[in-house]
Specification:
The protein has 17 helices and no strands. It is mainly α. The protein has two domains: 186 residues, MFS general substrate transporter like domains (Growth Hormone, Chain: A), CATH 1.20.1250.20; 200 residues, MFS general substrate transporter like domains (Growth Hormone, Chain: A, Up-down Bundle), CATH 1.20.1250.20. Keywords: Cell inner membrane, Cell membrane, Membrane, Transmembrane, Transmembrane helix, Transport. It is a multi-pass membrane protein.
């Protein structure tokens, strides 16, 4: 039990992302099978980031003030899968939209809170955050393929029950977690405005938004695209997602070393160009073998790009503004990019098809890569001044 306590965040991340693997990769396909258009699916996927922009600061304030990180995690770990059953009712778009809002309220604080607890735990036990977070990728990769095969035999409708069971396990593991040292406070709008006055940091965020809008188009609609190819869809999604998740592991481990040696600018550009290549491949409706091989680019397009972006945002700003910079980077990469990708991507699919959507995404990624190459200020540690 003492050993479990020492490595509790590792175990938590493994099962949390394993639970996500039983549900997240298959949801868009489920919604398409329920009769929704790509644009409607895009709207549903946009709801989460939009709600998160409002509720995450509220959750953070409550936890900062009352020290209730564990209690919030426990509540959210049960409420999120319980609300997800709303998607299984076949109640139509209005009910699905209400479900998406309710899920976002309880799901959005889980990763920031668990990260805060894991960081505090790592400092206490002389571990590293990356070592514990890596087990999340392992859990995701290990489960997603077998679960896809299972759904192909018993039916994808069972994913809501399986997700609930897995999150009950997460709830139990949360009991073993230590109380964190507090979550990051939400940045004030005045701090955000001051940081955005710096041209270099503004350009960094704009280029991140370009690339992330392209890659999020891929993420949001990939299972819908796989569904359009026919065959055993659940099994295909499982194998494709497993390969992409496994490809992340070495790049999460080596991203800091690569950035130190080659600089953030080159690593961010490499991630952008790799994403453009990946979108181009998918846009030509490749055979399953080539599609599977292209999934191995995920390690560069996500793990390397995201890790370099986090460190770059941290180094581009002075002490005292680190949290503000990370908040902005997270808002741009996840919330704003998903809002753009889900709505514009869904519209493009419905009006022009998957090929045009993915080629548009490739152009965005390529443009971002060129921008990073041209941004000479993004070296290994250039810092934005307060002036």
């Amino acid at each position: 039990m003492n050993r479990l306590h020492t490595y509790a965040p590792h175990v938590y991340y493994f099962f949390f992302f394993a639970a996500a693997a039983s549900y997240a990769p298959f949801l868009a396909f489920w919604l398409r099978e329920a009769g929704l258009t790509s644009q409607q699916i895009g709207i549903l996927y946009a709801i989460g980031p939009l709600v998160a922009l409002v509720v995450q600061p509220i959750w953070g304030l409550l936890c900062d003030k009352h020290g209730i990180e564990k209690a919030v995690l426990m509540i959210c770990s049960l409420m999120t899968p319980a609300i997800a059953f709303g998607y299984s009712t076949g109640g139509g778009f209005a009910l699905y939209a209400a479900t998406a809002v309710a899920i976002a309220i309880f799901n959005s604080p889980m990763i920031p809170l668990s990260d805060a607890i894991a960081v505090a735990h790592a400092q206490k036990y002389r571990q590293t955050y990356g070592a514990s977070r890596m087990w999340g990728s392992i859990g995701y990769a290990v489960l997603v393929s077998p679960i896809g095969i299972m759904y192909s035999h018993i039916g994808i409708r069972h994913m809501f029950v399986f997700y609930m069971v897995m999150m009950v396990v997460v709830f139990a593991i949360t009991l073993v977690l230590e109380k964190g040292g507090g979550v990051r406070k939400a940045a004030s709008w005045s701090d955000i405005g001051k940081l955005l006055q710096n041209k270099e940091f503004r350009m960094f965020l704009l280029l991140v938004l370009l690339v992330a809008s392209g890659t999020q188009c891929f993420s949001v609609f990939f299972s819908v695209y796989v569904g359009s190819t026919g065959g055993n869809v659940s099994e295909k999604i499982g194998w494709l997602t497993a390969v992409s998740a496994l490809s992340e592991l070495p790049f999460f481990i080596l991203a800091a070393r690569f950035s130190e040696r080659f600089g953030y600018r080159r690593m961010l550009a490499l991630g952008a160009f790799a994403a453009a290549l990946r979108m181009c491949i998918v846009s030509f409706d490749p055979p399953m073998g080539l599609l599977l091989a292209s999934q191995m680019l995920q390690g560069i397009t996500f793990a390397l790009f995201y890790a370099a972006g986090v460190q770059c945002a941290n180094d581009l700003c002075p002490e005292g503004w680190k949290t503000t910079a990370q908040t902005l980077f997270s808002m741009v990469y996840t919330s704003l990019a998903v809002l753009i990708a889900s709505n514009v991507g869904g519209w493009l699919i419905d009006h022009a098809g998957f090929s045009i959507m993915y080629r548009t995404a490739a152009v965005l990624c390529f443009a971002g890569g060129v921008g990073f190459i041209a941004m000479r200020g993004l070296g290994r540690g250039g810092t934005v001044s307060r002036s």
